[in-house]
Amino acid sequence: MTTTISNAYITAKINPKGAELFSLKSNNSDQEYIWEGNPAFWGKHSPILFPIVGTLKKNTYKVNNSEYQLSRHGFARDMTFELIDKKEDSATFSIQSSAETLKVYPFEFELQIHYSLEDKKLNIAYKVINKNQSKLPFSIGAHPAFALDGSFEDYQLEFEKEEALVYNLLENDLISNKTQILETKDNLVKLNYKLFENDALIFKNLQSRSLTILKKQNPFLKVDFQGFPHLGIWTKKDAPFICIEPWYGYSDTDESTGNIFEKEGIQIIEANEVFNSKFTIETI
Question: Whose CA is closest to 61, among 268, 270, 256, 271?
Fold first, then answer.
C-alpha cells in the first residue's frame, strides 16, 4: 500500500518497496515532477542507494579478509520498508539488518527515511543507525529522476556557485581518473544528450550545494543538497528525465583494494552512533 503525504501546496506518494518516492505533484497545476518510470527508458523513479553507491570492483569487497558481494547501488532499493510514523504531511520508513542482509553486508544497522513537506518543499532525510559494537562502513545516496516534458534542449541546470565543474568519467561502471570540465555560461549548463554519452557525470568535489532546473530560462525545480560531498547527474539517450543525485560515496576505482574500510568516499560511524543527512526538492 502506497503512502501519501500532502499540504496546501504539494502532494507526495511513496512506495514501501525501497521507500521510493514515485510522485510529487503541485496541488494547483497538477504538475508531476517525478519521472513516471517507463521501463523503455528506466523503470525506477527515485531509488535509495545503500549500503553502497555505484559499483564495486568485480561487485566484491572485503571485511576482515572475508569476501562479500553487492550489486550496483546496494540492496535497500529492493527491500520493503516498514512505515513507522505517519502524519498528514510526513512519513517515516525503516528497514533493519536481517539474516538475509548479513549474508552480503555483515553489519547490524537500521536505515530510516523521513519524508516531510514544508510549503513547496519536500525534505528527504536519511538516518543510519549503527547497531554494532564496532565501526559501520557505508555509502548512501539519492537517485531522483525529474520529469522533463517537451524538448530536452529546452532545459538548463543552474549551479549555485561559479566554479570549474570538473567531473570524473565512468569506465565499465567504475570511476576513472579521467576528468572533463562541464562548460558553463553564467553558472548555467544547457542540457543535451551528448553530455551523457559516457554515462553519468560524477562530481567528487563540487562547491555548489544546490542546483536549479530551468525550462526556457524559467526556474522549474530546485534540489538543495547541503552536506552531501558528491553529486551525480544522469539520463539516458532520448529519455524525458534528468537525475540529480546527491551522494555520500561513489563507485570503486580500478585501483581499489577491495577493503570496504579503505574505499574512496566511504562513510564510517562508530559503535552505536547515528548518521543524519537531508536533501530538499523545491517546486517553483
Answer: 256
Q: How far apart are CA 101 and CA 35, in angstroms?
A: 29
Residue 163 C-alpha cell reads as: 566554479
> What is the CATH number that goes with domain 3-283?
2.70.98.10
* Whole-number average pLDDT of the chain: 96
Residue position matching grid coordinates 548512501 = 140
Q: Any residues with CB less than 8 A from the CB of 190 and at least 6 apart, and which? A: 153, 155, 156
Cut 0.90: pTM above it: yes
- List the grid coordinates of 49: 542507494
**Burial label, 110 (beta-carbon count in 10 A; 0-12, 13-18, 19+):** middle
Residue 82 forms beta bridges with which residues?
94
pLDDT digits 0-9 by tens, 67-78: 999 999 999 999
Q: Is 190 helix (H, G, I), strand (E, B) or coil?
A: strand
Cα–Cα distances in Å, from 235 out to 2, 187, 194, 207?
26, 20, 10, 22
Domains of the chain, residue spans: 3-283
Dump pLDDT digits (tens) for 157-215.
Answer: 999 999 999 999 999 899 999 999 998 888 999 999 999 998 999 999 999 999 999 99
CB of 253 closer than 8 Å to CB of 174: yes
Is-contact 22 14, C-beta < 8 A? yes
Q: Is 92 exposed, middle or buried (0-12, 13-18, 19+ CB in 10 A)?
A: buried
How many whole angstroms separate alpha carbon 203 and alpha carbon 152? 22
- H/E stretch holding 29 reads none
The type of residue at 264 is E
**What are the beta bridge partners of residue 10?**
26
Backbone angles phi, psi at 196, to 5 degrees: -110, 20
